[in-house]
Write a structure and sequence with these properties.
Blueprint lengths: L9 E6 L4 E4 L2 E3 L6 H12 L3 E6 L13 E3 L3 H12 L4 E4 L6 E3 L18 E3 L3 H7 L6 E8 L3 H11 L4 E6 L11 E2 L1 E5 L4 E3 L3 E2 H27 L1
Parallel strand pairs: 1-4, 1-6, 4-5, 6-9, 9-10
Antiparallel strand pairs: 2-3, 7-8, 10-12, 11-14, 12-13
Helix pairs in contact: 1-5
The protein binds cytidine-5'-monophosphate.
Amino acid sequence: MNSSPLQSKRIIITAGPTREAIDPVRFISNHSTGKMGYAIAEYLYSLGADVQVVSGPVHIKTTLPPHVITNVITADEMLAVTQELGATADVIIFSAAVADYKCATIANQKIKKQEGALHISLVPNPDIAFELSKAKQPGQIHVGFALETENGLPNAVSKMQRKKFDFVVLNIQDNNGSGFGFDTNRVKLIDSDMAVTDCELKLKKEVAVDIVNHLAGKLQAAETRKEMSHA
Ligand code: C5P
């Protein structure tokens, strides 16, 4: 692969879950491990890209140096950091599994067990990819993920269009080695012109190579277009 389009490119990657507090000892979150996002970040870093990871709480042994990782807990924190770093980015990769909801209020003290049901009021979290799409700069590339259990293709396409992704990675969630917690993943890469690239089941680290190669192709095409417009 010709890695030159990635050299020194400023690439922001959101990764892992977010965690939304209920009280000082409890939270809402999801099963994301962050493996996919970190695998992409590590490969990009090895190719000489200027990588910044905005990471929710994960338990990952990474080869990335600490100064390229900003740790956050909540979706609001992830949004603030991604907005700040994203302003000067060439590429933003939204691989985080952001919690869709947060508590309307966070209890100051541990909520006591009570008779009967406990009702917690939830309000929507910001959609980080959608917020960043509003500030998308000309030439900036946004990559999204979609994890669907049904109607994968149409759902992924509508997400891509709403959030202005240049391409979307559709995760095939099944119990045959693909999805949260597995070291392997089966994905389809869907372009904004609706071209679909099918990838077979492989290690997340190998899927990361496919995604980065696809991204390199987009950057190369953008550079060629720029050169031709200046010719
Ligand atoms: O709508 P859905 O959550 O399936 O969209 C998935 C894509 O949007 C992923 O790329 C994910 O990182 C991003 N996203 C986000 N902020 C949210 C929800 C999703 O950045 N609050």
